[in-house]
Write a structure and sequence with these properties.
heterodimer; A: alpha+beta; Translation Initiation Factor IF3; 4 strands; B: alpha/beta; Aspartate Aminotransferase, domain 1; Aspartate Aminotransferase, domain 2; 7-stranded mixed sheet; 14 helices; 12 strands
Chain lengths: ~80, ~400
């Protein structure tokens, strides 16, 4: 898993405490609204997202930049490529 | 014998047009809203229409409305969900003493789970003093929960002032709007609440449908885990007919609110005027700042249950204390909290009127009630000499 710091996101989706698979549905919904090159930040407390979101990025051709581990939740960064 | 229903805070009759709106979703439109084919999509569209109507009733965005099964579920969800979501910031909650059991018992559960709860007192009219709320706040406080109006004494609480205090200290503010939404104007932006509970059957919608307004950006831990219904916040296949019914009831309530308030206030005032002519009957709750359809009293030397029984024999349906307190046959904690002695609190009776009630209903009730009181007092072991006292004091708590 790639840990990062100081990434500036263009848009944030706060889905902390929302149930699986909201992380994938929200990711799909939000990425459609971005321009290529823009960065989406997803805040989630769901451990499964740590596998699912990089896998989703591989599958769709978008870039998983990495994550930051906060005390109660994760920040995951995704750059829109396609 | 005609039937006179004066228990609208317990529940309301379903409006025929609400029933008509619900019917297709019991029959041909039975699809699961998560299905991707047209049957499911139509069910989903119906839910989103209802969400828009409920949101409009309280001046909120549709995306801030989460449908639940009841006002009680909304209250449980709000209290537990916010307390757990913010526990890393603190474990102190402030809850008033005039709350519904769904709030009181949720707060007690949290107390047993390691949270600290400050129980806010009220004055003799049932009003919370916002300054007392301010003084109760600690660095650990994460949530304040207050009823918008008590269904037992009808007093409308000063939410705006409390919301302002909560906002100053970055504390989440939940209001229980079950008794108010659809009965008085409720605007979440104007009130400044972060969460608001609602129940459809309190405004002529179906039972089994409630909602919780959650202000954008508010994190809340789900009460029911499962699928992604309600944006991943409340699992379980949606009760589509009930939700559609709630939407229709919200649409009608918004349209008719002014007319409903005028009609109910007039009947309520007639009941209060007639009741206070009977010696040793006292109004409970605030004399003016109260729900438009709500008149509550304590009657000295008589038990509420006895009054209810004799009224029902005359086809008149009312309540004694909250529905739960009535069944538990114990003095209502809300009446005790406004300073009514336990013996007098046993004589609690609540009349709540609705759109189908008429002036004739009120006249019939007032005609029948006085002899019932006289007969019960003759039978009461406590009633000996009841007529000797000062009968001028009409409002036990309000000092009329």
């Amino acid at each position: 898993m790639k840990f990062v710091e100081g990434i500036n996101a263009d848009v944030t989706a706060d889905i902390v405490y929302m149930m699986c698979p909201m992380h994938l549905l929200k990711l799909d919904e939000m990425i459609k609204q971005l321009d290529k090159g823009q960065v989406l930040q997803i805040l989630t407390d769901y451990d499964g997202a740590l596998e699912d979101i990089p896998a989703w990025c591989d599958k769709t051709g978008n870039e998983f930049i990495g994550l930051e581990d906060e005390e109660d939740y994760y920040k995951l960064y995704i750059r829109k490529i396609v | 014998m005609s039937k006179t229903y004066f228990d609208h805070v317990a529940t309301n009759p379903l409006r025929p047009d609400v029933f008509d709106a619900m019917m297709p979703y019991f029959k041909e439109e039975f699809g699961n809203p998560l299905n991707m084919y047209d049957l499911g999509l139509r069910a989903r569209d119906a839910i989103e229409w209802a969400r828009t109507e409920v949101a409009s009733l309280i001046n909120a965005k549709p995306s801030t409305i989460v449908f639940t099964s009841s006002g009680a579920e909304s209250n449980n969800f709000a209290l537990r969900g916010i307390a757990l979501a913010r526990q890393s910031q603190g474990k102190h909650l402030i809850v008033s003493k005039v709350e519904h059991h769904s709030i009181l018992n949720s707060a007690r559960f949290l107390e047993k789970s390691g949270f600290v709860v400050t129980w806010m007192p009220v004055d003799k009219n049932g009003l919370i003093d916002p300054e007392v709320v301010r003084k109760s706040i600690t660095d650990e406080t994460t949530l304040i929960s207050v009823t918008h109006a008590s269904s037992e004494i009808g007093t409308i609480e000063p939410l705006r002032e409390i919301a302002k205090i909560a906002k100053e200290r970055n504390i989440i503010f939940h209001a229980d709007g079950v008794a108010t939404v659809g009965n008085i104007p409720v605007d979440v932006k104007e009130l400044g609440v972060d969460l608001l509970s609602m129940s459809a059957h309190q405004f002529y919608g179906p039972k089994g449908a409630g909602a919780l307004y959650i202000k954008e950006g508010t994190r809340i831990v789900p009460l029911i885990y499962g699928g992604i219904q309600e944006g991943g916040r409340r699992a379980g296949t949606e009760n589509v007919p009930a939700i559609v019914g709630m939407g229709k009831a919200a649409e009608l309530a918004k349209k008719e609110l002014h007319q409903r308030i005028q009609h109910c206030e007039r009947l309520r005032d007639k009941i209060i005027e007639g009741m206070l002519k009977i010696p040793k009957v006292y109004l409970t709750g605030h004399p003016n700042n109260r729900l438009p359809h709500h008149a509550s009293f304590v009657v000295e030397f008589i038990e509420g249950e006895a009054m209810l029984l004799m009224l029902s024999m005359k086809g008149i349906y009312a309540a004694s204390g909250s529905a739960c307190s009535s069944k538990a046959l114990k003095a209502s904690p809300i009446l005790l909290s406004i300073g009514i002695p336990s013996s007098l609190a046993q004589g609690s009776i609540v009349f709540s009127v609705g759109m189908e009630n008429t002036d004739e209903d009120v006249a019939y009730f007032l005609r029948e009630f006085r002899p019932i009181i006289e007969r019960l007092r003759e039978m009461s072991p406590f009633g000996k000499g009841w007529g000797d006292g000062d009968a001028d004091e009409k409002c036990y708590v309000g000092g009329a």
